[in-house]
Specification:
With 67 residues, this protein is mainly beta. It is 10% helix and 28% strand. Bound molecules: zinc ion (ZN).
Protein backbone atom coordinates (compact mmCIF):
# COMPACT_ATOMS: atom_id res chain seq x y z
CA UNK A 1 0.00 0.00 0.00
CA UNK A 2 1.13 3.54 -0.76
CA UNK A 3 -0.46 6.86 0.15
CA UNK A 4 -0.94 10.03 -1.87
CA UNK A 5 0.23 12.57 -1.17
CA UNK A 6 2.39 11.72 1.83
CA UNK A 7 -0.57 11.24 4.20
CA UNK A 8 1.15 8.86 6.60
CA UNK A 9 4.78 9.35 7.41
CA UNK A 10 5.47 5.64 7.87
CA UNK A 11 3.93 4.43 4.59
CA UNK A 12 5.54 4.81 1.18
CA UNK A 13 4.16 7.84 -0.67
CA UNK A 14 3.28 8.07 -4.36
CA UNK A 15 2.33 10.91 -6.72
CA UNK A 16 -1.40 11.70 -6.74
CA UNK A 17 -2.92 9.66 -9.62
CA UNK A 18 -4.90 12.58 -11.05
CA UNK A 19 -7.63 11.48 -13.48
CA UNK A 20 -7.68 7.81 -12.50
CA UNK A 21 -11.06 6.66 -11.14
CA UNK A 22 -11.37 5.68 -7.49
CA UNK A 23 -11.99 1.93 -7.24
CA UNK A 24 -14.95 2.42 -4.91
CA UNK A 25 -16.88 5.47 -6.17
CA UNK A 26 -15.44 5.71 -9.73
CA UNK A 27 -14.99 9.49 -9.34
CA UNK A 28 -11.63 10.52 -10.86
CA UNK A 29 -8.94 11.43 -8.40
CA UNK A 30 -8.17 15.13 -8.52
CA UNK A 31 -5.20 17.17 -7.41
CA UNK A 32 -5.42 17.72 -3.66
CA UNK A 33 -7.26 14.44 -2.93
CA UNK A 34 -5.85 12.19 -0.23
CA UNK A 35 -5.95 8.44 -0.60
CA UNK A 36 -4.18 5.16 -0.99
CA UNK A 37 -2.89 2.95 -3.80
CA UNK A 38 -3.67 -0.70 -3.22
CA UNK A 39 -2.16 -3.61 -5.16
CA UNK A 40 -4.63 -5.40 -7.45
CA UNK A 41 -3.70 -8.86 -8.68
CA UNK A 42 -5.30 -10.53 -11.70
CA UNK A 43 -4.25 -12.68 -14.66
CA UNK A 44 -2.38 -9.75 -16.21
CA UNK A 45 -0.20 -9.27 -13.14
CA UNK A 46 -0.11 -6.70 -10.39
CA UNK A 47 -1.33 -3.13 -10.78
CA UNK A 48 -2.01 -0.38 -8.24
CA UNK A 49 -5.52 1.02 -7.93
CA UNK A 50 -6.36 4.35 -6.28
CA UNK A 51 -8.93 4.84 -3.53
CA UNK A 52 -10.03 8.09 -1.93
CA UNK A 53 -9.14 7.90 1.76
CA UNK A 54 -12.82 8.21 2.76
CA UNK A 55 -13.79 5.42 0.33
CA UNK A 56 -11.05 3.13 1.58
CA UNK A 57 -11.99 3.74 5.21
CA UNK A 58 -15.69 3.12 4.42
CA UNK A 59 -14.73 -0.19 2.78
CA UNK A 60 -13.40 -1.37 6.13
CA UNK A 61 -16.34 -0.02 8.10
CA UNK A 62 -14.95 3.31 9.23
CA UNK A 63 -17.16 6.28 8.32
CA UNK A 64 -15.76 9.77 8.79
CA UNK A 65 -17.35 13.10 7.94
CA UNK A 66 -14.20 14.75 6.65
CA UNK A 67 -11.46 12.40 5.44
ZN1 LIG B 1 -13.82 7.28 -3.99
Amino acid sequence: MKTFPNALGHVEAAPTPVGQPCVACRVPIKDGDVGVLMPHIDVDGVTEEPWHRRCFLASIGIYVADA
